[in-house]
Structure formats: C-alpha cells, structure tokens
Amino acid sequence: MIVFAVDDEEDALALITGAIKINLPDAELYPFNSASAAISFAEKTCPDIAFLDIAMPEMSGIDLAKKLKSINPKINLIFATAYSEYMGDAFSLHASGYLMKPISSKSVKKELENLRSPVTAPEVPVFVHTFGNFEIYVDGEPVSFSRRPAKEVLAYLVDRKGAVVSKKELCEALFKDPDCTHKSMDYLSKIIKDLGTTLDKAGVGRMIHIDRKECFVVPEHFLCDAYEYFKGNPEYMNKFSGDYMSQFEWAQDSVSKFYR
Questions:
Q1: For 130-165, what is each residue's pLDDT tens digit?
Q2: Does 102 sit behind a cis peptide bond, omega within 30 degrees of 0 on the bond before it?
Q3: I need a labelling partner for 123 at 20 to 30 A (CA). Which of 11, 84, 198, 204 fits?
Q4: In this structure, how many other beta carbons lie within 10 angstroms of the beta carbon of residue 79?
Q5: CA–CA separation, 25 vs 140, rounded Å?
Q6: pTM of the model
C-alpha cells in the first residue's frame, strides 16, 4: 500500500505522518511539503491513498487531488484542513474523507476503515525474468508479444530500473539511430503503443508508464529476478550464472553490474 501525505506546514506534516504510521505501520508512506514533488513521484508510484492539505501556496489541495486522480482514478483522497468551507469541492471529487485539523491518530483510523476504494494487497502476479533470456510472466504464463521490438523496449525499461527513459534514448539504443529520424521515431511510437496494448490485455498495464516523450517501468508492480539480486536476496543471487537478457546485444553492457 502506497500512501502520500502532503502539507506545506512542517509541523502539520509531521503530525499527520505520525498518525498514519500508527495506523498503517507496514505501508509505504511518502510525506511531501510540495505539491509538484508529490505529482512527480505519483507518476512513478501510483499511490493508493493521499492525505492532502487544502490551503497550500504552490497549488491547492483540490487541484492537487485532480492531478493525482488523473494518475490513479481509484485513489482514496482524504483532505486534512482547518477550513470547513472546502468540503463541497472535496466531495465533488468523490473524496474518501475530510479531516479537520488538528489531526489525531483516531480520526485517521476512522477514515482508513471507511475508504471509498478499499486497498487490497494481493500477491504480485507479474514476474520479470532477466537471467538468461528476457521473459515476462503473468500468473505463471508467459506474455506473448506480437512485435519483438515491443518486448525489447520493455526489457530496456526494466534494465533502467524505473528511471525515466526518453523516446530519443530508446531510438538511439535500440534502433542504432543517433539522429532519431522521423521514420525511426514514428516506428518507435507504434512499437510503444503496441507494448502498452499488450500489457493492458494481460491485465498488467500499471507496470509501465507511457507519456508523449518518455516512459518508465513501475517496479512496485512486478517482481524481477535482477532487482531481487541487487537487494541482496540470496535466492536470486544464487540463480545468476552470468547470463542477462541474452537475446539483446545492448544488455551485455549491464552484466558487469552484477559483479560489483
């Protein structure tokens, strides 16, 4: 479960994060005192719950909520404010809750027990296999790609471990086209669209974020042998025998990372 807390006032932010930790000790909690920082990180993590102050100088909590809702339509929005007059605006966004400051752990608990969109935490059904050949499995079944380049784009993004990758970089790395000609970029756009469609059909579209000029994977939505290796997981460290995404020439430049 991924939870955001956003408030421009340091003391208020500390108070609400403390209350959230008491009620959700195992959640991934990210506090922000900037709306723009929250939006940027939300695009990579897709939060399940967001506690938002409303009266903030950079961007109001209402406008921030709209941005977060565009990223995850099922996000639970819980407003925390000292002003009751924003309640109408808040619930027009189908907010899950509205807390009046000062916040207490008891009031936070009540809202968490009555979420509009209950958050479930099933086992991750997606496994990305990089040791040897690159493959992706959903519920134990390999995903079939209609175009090999679409699979290669996903492999490249997995190799970048969630870092934002521009389409220009993909064009240079995969098509060996440093000039990024219009023809190459147009072909790449079709490949990326096909990748998105394939993952959506497999029910795992959330594992990747695709924008007009860039894209990246969201590691929280899949299990990957290479990622587990770098976390120091003994099971996966013992499985690595020197082969990494063997069908892709560019991937061999990353093999040395496993021996550092």
A1: 999 999 999 899 999 988 999 999 999 999 999 999
A2: yes
A3: 198
A4: 26
A5: 31
A6: 0.57
